[in-house]
Each structure stands twice: as structure tokens, then as C-alpha cells.
Design a protein that fits this description.
Elements: E1 2-6, H1 10-21, E2 25-30, H2 36-39, E3 44-47, H3 51-63, E4 67-70, H4 79-88, E5 92-95, H5 101-117, E6 124-131, H6 141-153, E7 159-160, E8 170-176, E9 183-189, E10 194-200, H7 205-218, E11 224-226, H8 228-232
Parallel strand pairs: 1-2, 1-3, 3-4, 4-5, 5-11, 6-8, 7-8
Antiparallel strand pairs: 6-9, 9-10
Bound molecules: nicotinamide-adenine-dinucleotide and ligand LLHOTIJI.
Nicotinamide-adenine-dinucleotide is lined by residues 6-12, 30-32, 48-50, 53, 57, 71-74, 96-99, 137, 141, 207.
Pathway: Amino-acid biosynthesis; L-lysine biosynthesis via DAP pathway; (S)-tetrahydrodipicolinate from L-aspartate: step 4/4
Protein name: 4-hydroxy-tetrahydrodipicolinate reductase
Binding site for (S)-2,3,4,5-tetrahydrodipicolinate: 132, 141-142
Length: 238
């Protein structure tokens, strides 16, 4: 496939490595203002940029017939607008807060566990994420996805960051520590016991590999808005 990489930082460089190992042509790399004529050479773009640039990068791809796979976090207040744009341009768009297979299995576990815990009022739930020191947004996109899944399955209506210790919403704690690629845990606690599930990334390779697989996959699809659930088709209990 002819691939554009939008955002050439830690993730953009890892995507380049994986895409080359899978024999793809990288036709354009951008680290700032887009050159639309260059962008148009691509079939698909993968965006790992910054929250302030993500929406413009997505809409520029959609307006120019380039399928777009976005992994940038911290811009989701405009997600519905991006979906509407995809529909009006008859484009192809996939966003994931986390592309790794392991985290997508973890999402399924989280949803299943939340469903089981929903009637057990003696337990309270909280989330924790830990990332490297350069991460710009908090809480992580993955932690927000985990909280949204719990909200869908239980009586919780919202999440808090920083934590408020308020029983009616889900506290998300975010820590920044050198060398951590992405750690998330979900803990249900009662006076009797504690139930926890966690995921820890050992490198950025899983994120980049998932994004390249999603780009390969989206090129085989017709117009539409997709998620990693569509790509991975896990044998989920949900
Ligand atoms: N979805 C996932 O699986 C996943 C995994 C890892 C990181 N992320 C997210 O991806 C994003 C990037 O992470 P990173 O660790 O590579 O950050 P980074 O800071 O290393 O890289 C971001 C790059 O974007 C560039 N940039 C700035 N403005 C731009 C613009 N207008 N267009 C294109 N590029 C621009 C910067 O120069 C920088 O090189 C973050 O939002 C992060 O949370 C998502
Ligand atoms: O390194 C990052 O930044 C990561 N961002 C994503 C998030 O916000 O959830 C995924 C994990 C790594």
C-alpha cells in the first residue's frame, strides 16, 4: 500500500519500521503543516501526531480521498464531527485509543467484568494508568475507553481525573514515570476483597503493528467509520 505517516515522533518512526518490514511504500511523511499534493499520493494515512493537529489531519485526508487510521489521543471532543465528515465525504476512517492486540483483548475483559460487577454494590471501581514522561495528555485515551466501557455496563455515569473519591463516578489516576510504554489497571475493591485486571506494554511495537494492520484492512473495506473491534474480530464473550 502507499502509506502517508502523519506525525514523525516516537510512534511515527515505529510505524515506519513496521510498514517497511511489511513491504509497504511510504510516500509521504509529515511532522507539521500538511502538503496536500504530497498527501494525495497515498492510499491511506496513519496519524500519530498531537491533539491540536489530529482533527485537521483527519479531515484533510477525508477531503482528498485518502483513508485515515488515527491513533492520536486527546482530541475526542471533535470525534462526532470527524464521523460526520467521513460520512459526507464518503470516506474511510478508523480511530483507536490503543491499537495493540493485547489491549483490545483487555477491553473485552474489562467490558465482561463490568457487566458481572454491575449488580454488586459492595464494590467500588477505580482505574490507573502509567506512561512515560513525554506523554502530553492525561488521562490516557486507553483509560478513557476503559472508563466509557464501565459506564456503559454499570450505573456509573462519569469519570474523574484527577480522582475525587466520589462514589458515583470512576476515579482515574495517571502517573508519569520514565521508560513506561503504557500500563493500565482496573480495580474493584470491597471490604472483603479486591479484583484487579491489568495490561502492561513492553514496547511501542504492538501499537504500531496494530495501526499498520488496520491500514491494510481499511483499504479492503468500503466507505465507513470503523474501530479495532471490526479489524480484530476477537472471539469475544460480549
Ligand atoms: N492509539 C495508540 O495505540 C497509541 C499508541 C501510542 C501513542 N498514541 C498517541 O499518539 C500520539 C503521538 O504519540 P508519540 O509518542 O509518537 O508522540 P511524539 O511527541 O513522539 O510525536 C508526535 C509528533 O507529531 C509531530 N507534529 C506536531 N504537529 C503536527 C502536525 N500538525 N501534523 C503532523 N505531525 C505533527 C511532532 O513534531 C512530533 O514529532 C499521542 O497522542 C499518543 O497519545 C496512541
Ligand atoms: O505513549 C502514549 O502516548 C500512549 N498513548 C495511548 C493512550 O493515550 O492511551 C496508548 C498507549 C501509549
Amino acid at each position: 500500500m502507499k502509506l502517508a505517516i502523519l506525525g514523525y515522533g516516537k510512534m511515527g518512526k515505529t510505524v515506519e519500521e513496521i510498514a517497511l518490514s511489511r513491504d509497504h511504500d511510504i510516500v509521504y511523511i509529515s511532522s507539521g503543516q500538511l502538503d496536500i499534493n504530497e498527501l494525495k499520493n497515498a492510499d491511506v494515512a496513519i496519524d500519530f501526531s498531537i491533539p491540536e493537529a489530529a482533527f485537521n489531519n483527519i479531515t484533510s485526508c477525508l477531503e482528498n480521498g485518502v483513508a485515515i487510521v488515527s491513533g492520536t489521543t486527546g482530541w475526542l471532543d471533535k470525534y462526532t464531527e470527524a464521523v460526520d465528515k467521513c460520512k459526507s465525504e464518503s470516506g474511510r476512517f478508523l480511530y483507536a485509543s490503543n491499537f495493540s492486540v493485547g489491549v483490545n483483548v483487555f477491553f473485552e475483559l474489562n467490558s465482561y467484568l463490568a457487566k458481572m460487577m454491575s449488580g454488586l454494590d459492595e464494590y467500588g471501581v477505580k482505574l490507573k494508568e502509567v506512561h512515560h514522561l513525554e506523554k502530553k495528555d492525561a488521562p490516557s485515551g486507553t483509560a478513557i475507553s476503559l472508563a466509557d466501557q464501565i459506564i456503559k455496563e454499570t450505573s456509573y455515569k462519569s469519570w474523574n481525573h484527577p480522582p475525587k473519591n466520589d462514589e458515583t463516578s470512576i476515579d482515574i489516576e495517571a502517573e508519569r514515570e520514565a521508560g513506561i510504554f503504557g500500563y493500565h489497571d482496573v480495580t474493584y475493591d470491597s471490604d472483603i476483597d479486591t479484583i484487579s485486571i491489568s495490561h502492561n506494554a513492553k514496547s511501542r511495537k504492538g501499537f504500531a503493528h496494530g495501526a499498520v494492520v488496520a491500514a491494510e484492512w481499511i483499504l479492503k473495506q468500503k466507505e465507513g467509520v470503523y474501530s479495532m473491534k471490526d479489524v480484530l474480530q476477537l472471539n469475544s464473550p460480549n
